[in-house]
Amino acid sequence: MSNDNVSPASSQKPRAIVLLSGGLDSTTCLAWAQARYECFALSFSYGQRHSSELDAARALAKRAGVEHRIIDIDLRQLGGSALTDDSIDVPEDQSDELPGSIPVTYVPARNTIFLSYALAAAEVINASAIVIGINAVDYSGYPDCRPDYIDAFAKMAALATRAGVEGNPITIETPLLQLTKAAIIQLGLEHGVDYSQTISCYQADVNGYACGRCDSCRLRRQGFLDAGVKDPTLYQAATNQD
Amino acid sequence: MSNDNVSPASSQKPRAIVLLSGGLDSTTCLAWAQARYECFALSFSYGQRHSSELDAARALAKRAGVEHRIIDIDLRQLGGSALTDDSIDVPEDQSDELPGSIPVTYVPARNTIFLSYALAAAEVINASAIVIGINAVDYSGYPDCRPDYIDAFAKMAALATRAGVEGNPITIETPLLQLTKAAIIQLGLEHGVDYSQTISCYQADVNGYACGRCDSCRLRRQGFLDAGVKDPTLYQAATNQD
């Protein structure tokens, strides 16, 4: 990522690194951020089972006209989550987990690793913000999706970086933090997001069709229902409930 | 990294992830940590120019009898430092940099990325600590080598992880934080470290011979002088000053 890829004169907006997974939330974030920042998208190939998500991220960044980097990190080397460890099954329904317990789809320290790379990228291109689609409503079981966590990361980041030392700490923007899925969808539609291009499913097929059964699919489907908007998700034939 | 690679019954000591670069400081940390913890070493292949450091880390971990993982991360994709960006020269003498300025060998957010991976690894194996050879005496110019930074990372980590949520936050141990290079060498010698096996040079050759001229070599050489100990470093012929 080069500091002079984009001439400062090309935009009056401050720069931001936007974490883009290719899912509904991060795509909404990108659209929101483009109204405020000159955006650079960052995705991670982290041994996730659903690589079609990265194809979606690539296409979405291209459509948005933003520079995009995919960073290859192998969390499989560490294991410990149903999303990266083949020996742990992805549950189709996590609603029977104990209230307050951490879901098996939680990936240890994932957001911390992602935000750390974003911090490095932000320093290199002199970005003033990192935008991440963390949500504390639907993902209250994940420790690293809570507001206190984000505040603590921002404090650490201010001490960790050249920008912070020089008095201009890089901020962590979480526009979706307290929004319901329906409100996120409304926000995205206001910013022109085409949700048929986004993939949320934990086990989408190679063409990006969603299973319709996993926790992420359930939350997403309910979001469109609650928002009173037709669900444009491409479901695998057997589970297409449109 | 498997949670049951080592049976809990095999050791009464709590577990720790030790960040091991193969240099003088981290090797001292590993020796220190082995007296207190059941240790698991973690190294990073991050596009550093001196890959002989990783060979040293491999050999040192083997000699110490600890499980060792090398995580491949490509900071070159992000650029921004003389240590990872071929377009920036490694200075032979940084002493003419402005006091309080950040050296060009600073790698953006490097320690934050390393500690984030260590945090993930610690969660997976139920380690109670991460040990890192950060030093605030010789590296005061690096924002992410300061005590305040480590404190902030630990606070963030407590909020980020399952262990933290469950009331047993993973601690960040920095046994070298306030030690001079001479004191670090003394500590290592007390724990049986063979410093001829460690590599500190920013531009060591493929056989691990040090340049003797870069900032890291200067600090190291002075450390042995101040400790009153013969410098066992293998220098490239032209600069061998023994």
TrEMBL record, chains A, B:
Its EC number is 6.3.4.20. Pfam families: QueC (PF06508). GO terms for molecular function: ATP binding; ligase activity, forming carbon-nitrogen bonds; zinc ion binding. It catalyses: 7-carboxy-7-carbaguanine + NH4(+) + 2 ATP = 7-cyano-7-carbaguanine + 2 AMP + 2 diphosphate + 2 H(+). Pathway: Purine metabolism; 7-cyano-7-deazaguanine biosynthesis. InterPro entries: QueC, Rossmann-like_a/b/a_fold. One of its GO terms (biological process) is tRNA queuosine(34) biosynthetic process. Binds 1 zinc ion per subunit. ATP binds at L20, S21, G22, G23, L24, D25, S26, T27, T28, C29, L30. Gene3D superfamilies: HUPs (3.40.50.620). Keywords: ATP-binding, Ligase, Metal-binding, Nucleotide-binding, Queuosine biosynthesis, Zinc. Its cofactor is Zn(2+). Zn(2+) binds at C201, C211, C214, C217. Catalyzes the ATP-dependent conversion of 7-carboxy-7-deazaguanine (CDG) to 7-cyano-7-deazaguanine (preQ(0)). Belongs to the QueC family. This is 7-cyano-7-deazaguanine synthase. It comes from Alkanindiges hydrocarboniclasticus.
